Amino acid sequence: MPQSDGVTPTGGARQPTSAADFPRTGPFSLAAPGPRFAARAIDLLAVSFPALVYLAFATSYTNARFEFGPLLWLGPALFLFGSFYEFVGVAAFGRTPGKAIFGLRVVRMIDGKRPDMPQALLRAMTPWVFIALPLGVFCVPGVLVAYGSATAGELHRGLPDHAGGTLVLSTR
């Protein structure tokens, strides 16, 4: 990460505090909201596709009679699968498949390196917790608000970024 002097007066690494600490465009610049949302859409599609297929087959085999009993496990299953998908991508590669397509990388805010396992886990679980909670029709808007919060603030850090101590940067 570009920094003016790279070190605090006490000898530690200087943590970026404003958008001025990053180039405006190109590699190492803050990820713009458009590519972040597009990458998130790809990731959400990858995670939710198995659930959508299940719902399509479950309703067709019950003669279009929709029952909520068998679906009680679907929220926790999506929480586990979505968290695992995000955790593995960020912990192992610093990006999910959606972020890779759009040239984005998740980095630790403190030093610009790939997030460690606890950071990646916290970052991954934060938005999906809304799916696991019994919020009914409000669970999907909760996930969207968690991801949409990335547009707020100068550094474009959403709830998952704050939970994991991370930033999303452009690699292009």
The helical percent reads 40-55%
Extract low-pLDDT stretches: 1-11
Task: Give the CA-based shape.
Answer: elongated
Lateral strand order in the biggest sheet: 1-2
What order do the SSEs take from the amino end to the carboxyl end, as H and E?
Answer: HHHEHHHE
Count of helix runs:
6
Descriptive report:
This protein has one domain (27-170). Helix content is 50%, strand content 6%. It contains six helices and two strands; from the N terminus they run αααβαααβ. Strands 1-2 form a two-stranded antiparallel ribbon. It is elongated, with a radius of gyration of 18 Å.
Key traits:
mainly alpha, two-stranded antiparallel sheet, 6 helices, 2 strands, 6% strand
In short:
This protein has one domain.
Secondary-structure map:
Elements lengths: L32 H29 L12 H20 L3 H5 L2 E5 L8 H16 L6 H10 L10 H6 L1 E5 L2
Antiparallel strand pairs: 1-2
